[in-house]
Amino acid sequence: MADVNPGATRRDQLTSTWVEIAIRIGVLGLLLYFAFLLVQPFITIAIWAIVLTVALYPAYDRMVGWLGGRRRLAAVLLTLLGLLILLGPATWLALSLIEGISSLSHRLDAASFTVPSPPTSVKEWPLIGQPLYQFWELASTNLRAAVAKVAPQLRPVGGSLLAIAAGAGTGALQFVIALIVAGFLFPPAPTLVDAMNRFSRRLASDRGEAFVQITGATIRAIARGVIGVAALQSFLIGCGLVVAGIPGASLLTLACLLLGIIQIGPAIVIFPVIIWAWTAMDTVPALLFTVYMIPVNLIDNVLRPLVMGRGLNTPIVVILIGLIGGTISLGLTGLFLGPIVLAVIWELLVAWIRERESEA
Length: 360
Hints:
Elements: H1 6-66, H2 71-107, H3 129-141, H4 143-185, H5 189-203, H6 208-244, H7 249-261, H8 267-280, H9 283-308, H10 316-330, H11 334-359
């Protein structure tokens, strides 16, 4: 009977083990991939629901105290209040936009709208003077022909605008659904936080719970310092626009709100409006409008650092970098994910440096 080579047997066993491990990893990876495909449509809603739950939980906790400990009633009332605050201005804005578009389409009625003849001085403009004069002259004599001439160039722009509008509508619908989901998360929130603490201790036994606290504090700081300040600033801007009688006040207010949230700021909207006011209004109203709008435009630079610095040990520069970078990379979802990730990384770096110093 031939001798069995122990080395060959061990190699065969090792090969069999590695093949079995590879098969298991492959099956597990395939299951995780299909699971990700199933939950992918709900990831944005889940992130926003968690953000809203964390950001609004202090208000929910106070409401529970006012209602004598009735947690479900407090969750229902807070959700309804949030929907009212969200859908009320949105409905007002939609109606204002519809009215403005209707008025604009009436003014641009092809049967009554005429384009004046271009001045001859337009020909002298560098580069664009001659083609602009020819197109302007064509529009003054045959508007339909001019529109037909530029229609192929405008079609891609129209498609892009429709895509942007569709994305905005989808995002708004997701936000509404997330707010409703957050209403169901308020009552079991302490249990969920306890489960998250246990999971974080498995990942990092020493600082796991601290990271959960950092995440919650960062979400609340971003909600107060970015969305809260932008909402307050856009409200003050909207009041000024309405009182001054600026056309399209609702659309300008929405633009200021979005620009404030994504950290660009409303200045690119406000300053052209101020310049227009000096050309279309009397001196005193234009001066009063300017004196009001300039401080309102700068108010976020004062309030945001004060509000965001409360309850956070992470430097405000790190938070702002994560906020801007996250917004650029991931859109409005990155508005919260960016600062959270950088805040946790910053705390890990600080803990690592302290451990090295204590060892030395």
